[in-house]
Queue: 4 jobs
Job 1
Amino acid sequence: MKKLISLALAAILLLGVFAGCNRVNMDEDVEAADTEATSRIAMTLTLWLPTDGATDEDIEAVSAAINRLTQAKYDTAIDFKLIPRAQYADAVDARLNEITTMIEEEEAAAEARRKELKELKAQGITVEEEPEEEEEAVVVEEEETIVNELGITITKYPEVGEKQFDIFLVTSYKQYMDYIENELIQQLDGELSGSSKLMKTYIYPTYLELANVQGTYGVPNNHPVGEYQYLLVNKELVDQYDYDPDSLTSVLKCQAFIEDIGNQHLDGVIPLLGEVDAANMHYFGLNEDKNEWSVIGNQVTNSMIYSSPCIPKSVFSTNVYINTVGMMKRLKELGYVGDGTVKEGEKFAVGVVSGDPSVAAQYEDEYYVRIYAKPMMKEEDVFGAMFAVSSYSKSLARSMEIITYLNTSTDLRTILQYGAQGVHWDYTSEDNHDTIKILKDSYKMRLTDTGNVYMTYPGPGRPMSDWDAGKQMNLDMISDPFMKFPGVLTENNKELLEQLVEVSKQYKERLDALTSEEYDDAITEIKKEIKNDPFLKGLLDNTGEDPNSILQFYNDWHDENYPS
């Protein structure tokens, strides 16, 4: 899509105008410092967001609260628009298409006029050419003012331009890539390395690394991701039966201990809290988005990151998987596996539970706590809510100023999330600003849609310190190596993958029907079958000769996205 020349010239002029305006340094706590008293023109920017509920009165109150801050600090007015979540993506696309169409029509009309004049000239007809419209340039001039109802002279902020669209939320990886491909959003790297570099100290680096797709075009909203799975081992029982706690670091390594406790038939003691699976298995096939079991898969380990290779292979060659299945068969046959719940007066020898670090703290007095699986950042965490600046923005620099504010300071961030102070929320008391209370709940926004979550309160009655657990999760997290992966389903191999689904069902039925005594010998036989099966052998071909190879498809994708 062609970009309007006038917009490009305006952007260049804006850079010149604002090159001498030093970027403000925002206080980490609440207030952002006032901008320097330099020549800044009054400007109006648009901000579009999805909402889960808001009345016209809510929007008016929030808009007024936002503008009190942005006009005072940056001489920037915000034209604030909320759209119901279900309609949001279509509304954004409609606005972008509307502007694109207007520009294309103007360019087509101009081109038609040029052709007309050229033809008339060729016929010897002299036509006085209409003067070309002067390119709209941004200049520093005396701002227009008005006198308000109180008789006070104030700045008059300009109306939003007919072809203006500034800050909005990108809500998926596909949308992000489509906007980049069609040049509908602007590259932000220059700003992120310059006047908006403060954001890099507030946003976990992996977010920005993944947003960089041959350039960074959006700023993901920083937030905690996923949850831990913790392995819990009872301290009292470990001491009583003389086990070395340092050796009990995985469920598989706890098998002998679980069986020993089970053999004691202790009242009120569950040997294994509940059924345990091999952590973070990824299955390749027709329905990867649902992660349906397949004979082809692999495990995402706690040491992997988004660029780590996690190649397709037979699940029966993934040792952690087959050993965990075998262990669970034996323990269930012995009756040593609980239903995942603990009644009053009961305890368990070994268990796996999920949650944030507060869950670990609940158990650490009675149990040795190990990380069984780390929190995992998924594609939705990065690309499900990221601020972008439209290619039709009045000013990239000024738009990024507002985005930086939302990611580094509490005052504007809290208004956008919870509404206007005194209308929708207020501090718990005049003397206690550690927590807030909700006064009116008709204004509803998703916490991850409105900026860096760590810059506002986790919820009513919850202090900022409650984010400490989430920050630790970000430090410990792994990032899904299948982020951005389109799956192995292509236009040409659907029938092939449907066949894989049927083959996988057969193997799963055989696997489930095995007893623990039959298991080891059967697994050895299944491994031989898969190795010699022409169909599965073709799917796992690594020679490049089979065009239907899932392995080759994955390797090609990985090499393209993460070249070594």
Job 2
Amino acid sequence: MKSKTLYIVLALLLVASVVLAACQPKAEEVAVVERAYEEIAYGEPLSVAAPDCEYGGKIASIAAVDELTVEFTMCKPDPAFPTKAAFTPFGIYPQEWLNTYANVEGQETLLSHPVGTGPFYLDTWARGDSITFKKFDGYWGEKSAYDTLVFRWATEGAARLLELQSGTVDQITNLSPDDYATVQEDANLTFLPVANPNVLYLAMTNTFEPFNDIKVRQAIAMGIDRQRIVDNFYAEGSVVPSHFTPCSLPNGCVGDAWYDFDADAAKALLAEAGYPDGFATTIYYRDVFRGYLPEPGLVAVEFQTQLRDNLGIEADVVVMESGEFIDESTNGRLDGLYLLGWGADYPHVTNFLDFHFAASNPQFGDPHPEIYEVLEAASQIGDPAEAEALYVEANNAIRELVPMVPIANGASASAALNTLENAHFRPFGAPLMAKVNPGKDTFVYMQNAEPISLFCQDETDGESLAPCQQVVETLLGYAIDSGNVVPELATGCTANADSTVWTCTLREGVTFHDGTKLDANDVVASWAAGIDAANANHIGNTGAFEYYSYLFDGLMNIEE
């Protein structure tokens, strides 16, 4: 009797558990990020606009046309819009999340715990050690083959390689040139050349003496033996650049080539400027290994030596914390010389020239209209052949005015365990970690520095942008192999005849990590937070929103 009763009770419990399980929402329907706000149903379409186009920028307005359509109206043609819109700082966040955390009180969450639509969501950031991401089961696209993604970092290339060889990490970035052969000869490792165009440059700020004198800047341009630097510190395949923009990009290398090394002519020019015995200054750098600067400390000392021997300039070498260095250098506050570089974010010459030499960029001091006015005209022309004459003029002006000295186009490489399926490094952007299959539950990726923040609307640092790309997606993206623009959150963005109106159609059924649904208002809210200086959500890490400003010729609604 007791056995029969027990069986009945167990059966009833089993039925109840099945019914209860059937009533539970599926994994895709469960929010994986706790949120402190209610979802805003799509209702009144959002828009952001400048009063008029007199402010000088490219964007006149951004408006939600309907739930899945966003229209970008430009003040002037912008044929490069798709290549820019695919870049990480133009990622899309939930408007509810921005409204809650894009303020002083919520800034810590804003900078350290982004919410996006990507294949991974952020789990924990153990400062100084690692960042852990988890697979997002509600992802709209092809889901990751593994559950946990970990980002770690180490400054030294040798330390990263040792971790890879020991199997404690699965892929590393920025191999030291001296380690190329070691990886290529190791049957357990895969050598991954990186095809990203890049440039290292020696910069100076013309609002500080003596760099306000064009003759001083030209003397430094002629007084540096760039070939010696490339030969001694760079991997095979690296070259001395003829122009600021790498030659693989159309119109990158039109116009006159850079100055040849001539120490005698450089010293004579420095004497004409009133410095026959040189002067004292400082060389600043950050100790972060990059493809364009594989040995930061050694290269900084080499510059110190050449400046003293070739020009009589005595320079102290100062290493700065990475975040402070980026902030000070890009805002034009370093009184001296500094080492910085650039890796291509998207496949267009505007990425190099328009970012660095825009009217709104204070990095090199007072901007030069001889450069930025020509670039603004060239950026409105879609045909590279038609735009060539303008880029000749701009490149020649850069050579004449010497805001900086292009030093090296670095050959670089990554490496991975040979057990990884589809290990890669894209020409533009970081690897797409969800496309990799490590054959186990956890994939550990090691880069060369800790992110500055994870709110990448307001970051320019590659070590910040790489983890952001796993979490936050853009309207368009870059293909793994070719770097061509492909659909992402938008199924496409189409232009009118003169590229002054771009209409983007959003993908249906996309969900953010917090469970809210993607719609056109999220796109408008995200772009408005970056491009509109008067927007309540225009809060970030530095507040500069540099990519929004420089790539679209300035922020709208800036208070005078």
Job 3
Amino acid sequence: MWVGFRAVDGREEAIQELTAPGGLFELTTEDVLGQPAAVFASRMRSLREMVAKAAAFADQEFLVLQDQRLTFDDFTSQVAAAAAALQQRGVGHGDRVAIFAANCPEWVVSFFAATSLGAIVSAYNGWWTADEVNYATSLSQPELMIADRARLERSGSGRPDLACVVIEDDWDGFIASGAGTSLGDVEQPLAEDDPAVILFTSGTTGRPKGAVASHRGLIGFAQSTLMNGAVRAITERRSNPGTEDGGAPSPPDQTVTLGTSPLFHVSGLYGTTLIAMVTGGKIVYRRGRFDPEAVLQLIEDEGVTAFASLGSIGSRLVGHPRFGEFDTSSVINVSFGGAPASPAVQNLMRQAFPNAAQAVGMGYGSSESVAVVAAIGGGEYRERPTSCGRVAVGFEAEIRDPDGHVLPTGQEGEIWCRSAYTMLEYWNDPASTAAAIDPARWLNTGDIGCFDDDGYLYINSRARDLILRNAENIYPIEIEYRLDAHPSVAESAVFGVEHPETGQEVKAVVVPDGEDADPDELAAWCREVLAAYKVPTLWEIRAAPLPRNPAGKVVKRELYS
């Protein structure tokens, strides 16, 4: 088993300094949900406390979208007003509030208003179709939905009795109804392990599962991320003694992060929003579909210092014919997440953003792990470009065989991890929860990988069924179920095919039911109930039956070409 203290270089020394009694990130052991776990001795205990502490950044800008520019003062006052407005509408502790909108300041305000009351945010995927929205609504049973017009129109009527705040039409009145209040007026106590948010992730049942994260989990994400950054900075500096900062550019007075990662994702809500909350950073959003030229202009205009290159975002920016015409020198941090980035893409980012070359890195985690399980960056990422790093402080991780036995270093198997921050459960799905989390609170990530002799974790992305396309998780069975329901399809198999920009593309192999199947018709059929990113882009129509093993399971490796 590997834990976040074992290392082979100055990293261990840095960790010991930071986590020792009196250290900046002092660690202690406490009981968390019936199991001993490493936690930070000094920590916030709720997201309401996080909002209160963010007020210290006062008139610094926090959330920017075109002409909307909210300072931290604006944000904290709007959170208090929105919380009061939610209370007036009957929302209380344990109730669900659905948010179904594009990235915008109102999304962030709504999230912290609801969680400050002890309500649970049901974070809807902004690309869902009506069928997917209706399923999530049926599962999470929200008391109220906060949505934008475009997504409401796409999702249809949904549940007629569900109260809805339409951002473009109702937001000003919604905030005004709670004006003049303070979060200090909220008397409902919050516990660290109270649920805070449901993030939906595709499951092997073919329907989204709702991973429930606690207040402790979200705060732990932020604090452990800062800890990982401090360890890396100290280690890099000591490994480059010729310069005070290891040769990296000086940090800016305020980080400015490009908010392209969706807020219904770990990367957007946790990695971007929570970190900006605790560091006084600014997040810059934009409307509409991803447009490389518009984003490059935004980087120049706002002095963006950091962005997450999920999926093909980085490649599309750098590959734009006008890339060199924009000033991108402000970018000093480029990160990857959602799926491993190829060494070629890593080097492309280093060359295109030279001021970020030493800070290019990635984190490995999931909606279920909540916090980052392993991370890598800087020089070690150059040396081990196919690794996702060493186990983060506060985490334990091990590789197990299908029977649950721990495997030795170098052997590939299922990745299991444990921390104080692991999801509480899959919402209203005890069977899936029991399958994912064992009685000792170890989480089966569903990933396949191994450790090397130095404790670096490697993931075999082809060994799992999950498809990662533009950092979106796609389970083939959901698409297979839809295809198999088409009258011209006898059977189907779906899997991921490597792609240089999107990570993977979705390929469908279809056996027709007596007559030819039309890929365009099948794509339209899928698009009726599946989000666009799940619709196959590669099709193979074959006459022979799908290859199966004696148990009747399709042997997909025989279909790869």
Job 4
Amino acid sequence: MQLELIGPHPFAKDEQGRQATRIGTLFPEHKVLWTQQPGVHALQRLGFIERLNVERTGKGLPPMSTEEEEKLCGNSLDLIFEADHILIRPNKERMEVTFAGDELLQSLVSKRQIGFLSVLDPRVQEAVKLRGECWRLSAIPKSREAKERMVFSSKVGIRGLPIYYYNRLTGTRWLTFQEFENLGKLDDASLARHLQEIATHANLKNRAGRPEVDFFGIDLRQFGGREFAGEAYEQLPPEQLRQRFGELREHFRTAVHESFRKDDSHNKAWCERILSTLFLEGNETQTEQLMSGLSPEFFLQVDWVPGGRFEEGEFQFDTIFDEAASHPEDEDLQRLCDARIKGIIFNIIREYGDLDYVNIGCLPESLSLGRPHRSSRRGVYIAEFRSRSEGEVIKRFIRLQKWGVWEHLDEGKDLLQSINESEDYTDYWLDRRLGCRQLGMNLTRRVVMRRLSETYGGKNERRRGEVIRTTYFEREYLEGIATDKLPSEKYAKAGYAVKLATLLGRAAVSNIIAGRAFAMGTRPVFDDGDEVVYEGEDGLPAEIRVGDHSGAFAEYKLPLEAAAAHYARPINTRDKMLPEPREFAEAYLAAFREQLLHIQGDYRKRRRAFDTLFKHCKYDVRGSFAYRWECVLRRLNQTNAETLAEAIRKHVWVLNLGKPQPERGEQLTTEPGTKRT
């Protein structure tokens, strides 16, 4: 399909290096993209209609009827141009028109440079999901700096200067007081033109029913487009023009809170309000959370990646993979087209067989601020798909094995040794999970170990280009909220804090027994993202489930009292949010002591079930899992529950007011490890 472009290219720059145009209108039936100014979609549609009528007149045909014009406009698509992206405002009633326009645009720019807006609309959600293209849904950047850049890069003009902040979803151009006040620096003719432009467009609605121009941060009862109406500004004498501008400026100023009178990226109030006005009310910012019903900690953290879609039951990969194959030198494109996604999708199709769609998102390895960030290949993904026979949306959490064939090849080992050590680590991972469950850790009910094929391209030059097997683990997605990311208002609800404290205290016991830590001798891992709270029908915490047992059995030598300071942190980090911090602390400690005595009782009652669980496994005092298990059980049996609970109590700030406090962030005594964890 060949697309006719009337006007500048969407990414073209003017002589000053600015984008030549920020909006366009696409007419899929005519295969035409209209980008000529002025920068209002309604006027672009009128411009194209005039062009068609001129052509019809030349052919001896009558002008288009009103019905034909309405049909043409109804089937057109509004586009917004970023520096290197085209954003489509979908035709929600006819998504097939949206996708037809999308395919036309792909003849002009790369598919990865085209995205969709309006993702909160259920019709858009469903249509995009069915195509396996969540990766093309527009979202705001994740960092504050990037958000600020996006705000200031959103400025557009209509016929004059770029004085408006543009909401790319609704089409409204927002005028701030500072930008309006700055118009006073223009010459009389330019000032008159801009006032007339504001007067005209502030009193017009676009086809979404939103004003073409609106005023930022105002009280609508005090100021609006009506203040500009009824005046022919370009016909006013200079003195009268300046007087009228002064009146409007003062009226605008008094209607705006003083926090919003200056466009200041360092003013938190202004930044939050402009972000809300331009993006949060634009809906597209909540893509990740709302498309998949993800928990709040995943908000704006998921990078959806290309996969593919089903057509009449047959699966075909996204055409962006063909583009990547044709441009191996394009590193950004290669990163976008993650080859491992194909293997993950194949495994899902093999298991379910009758899918409507599948979408895969990539996550940072850890959403916990306190965890060390390693430069590794350890990928973490979320898969969302729907089975026709089951009729429900299914979500799976996927994590690549930390030490696989690739990693061992990178160490210079031969292929057979790398395969064997990878298999050993898989067993070690699964044994640790079983050990955690035996010690009462409330882990996810089911984990499946799977493999995919990929071409090795690591440090080992002798093995580059070989196809290797990569292991990953797939589990159910936990729908609750991570304990360390509960919103502060939760704690104010009657009974919430005490129930949470009790559940946390119980969960802490299995965690401390299993010695979850980043490495031997380093601080324990607890209450920092893996523990997920489920609430009952009464809205109170009912259960804590652990999503991942990473770090388990890393610390198996030091006495449990050595970790006491860290297990006081769940209380200390919440003391400012709690209505009754002492009550929270006492409930936590009581539950901790009770659960520790319970697990010790289980062990002493059924000692053989624990002691022989891993007797069949390799035993090596240098750090095999069977040896670690033996050490952990011995430590459990020797621990005095009262002494350990009291050791934790001594580090709880609210229970030791007026007493010398330990250093925050206190570390365990470092002892060298013997094996990777």
